[in-house]
Design brief:
166 residues; alpha/beta; 5-stranded mixed beta sheet; 2 helices; 33% strand
Length: 166
């Protein structure tokens, strides 16, 4: 499938810091084939008007605690040990599989909505995580999930990779 995204601001993230206003981006399948300020020749199966939008690579969240999104701001103003032992750990101890799943879904939805395409989550080894979310017993302490979608109308495929670590 060939897609033309036009009339957007393309941020290339190259060494020169290139930003192309009124850009044309051609996507074929899952690959970006061209980025230009000139309209490419040919026909496209889908055309997306990107007016008022920025097109750029997705963000990477290299240290996340996805389910903790639900406790954002809870216990603020305390030192680390008080915050952990008097606020966070007692709440986490009461979470069941359903709560963890709901809080994780909330955190992932928030990240996807803000352009995060890859995460390394520090909570993936919690033994109370639902079995389908739990890494193998031999896995180390973090997980990475990558999500990408070639078009806004296509749901993103997701890949989970258990990382190596201490």
């Amino acid at each position: 499938m060939s897609i033309l995204i036009h009339n957007c601001t393309a941020v290339l993230m190259d060494e020169a810091g290139t930003v192309l206003p009124n850009a044309y981006v051609v996507v074929e399948g899952t690959k970006i084939r061209s980025v230009s300020t000139q309209r490419p020749w040919g026909s496209f199966e889908e055309q997306i008007d990107g007016q008022g939008n920025v097109l750029m690579p997705g963000f990477v969240n290299a240290h996340s605690h996805v389910p903790m999104t639900a406790m954002r701001g809870y216990g603020d103003g305390n030192n680390l040990q008080d915050w952990l032992h008097n606020y966070i750990f007692p709440v986490e101890a009461r979470w069941d599989d359903r709560a963890i799943r709901a809080c994780t879904d909330l955190g992932l939805a928030e990240m996807i909505a803000s352009g995060v395409t890859t995460i390394a989550d520090m909570m993936a080894t919690l033994t109370r995580w639902p079995r389908r979310w739990r890494p193998p017993a031999s896995a180390p302490t973090c997980a990475a999930a990558a999500c990408s979608s070639p078009t806004p109308s296509t749901p993103p495929p997701t890949t989970t990779v258990w990382c190596s670590g201490s």
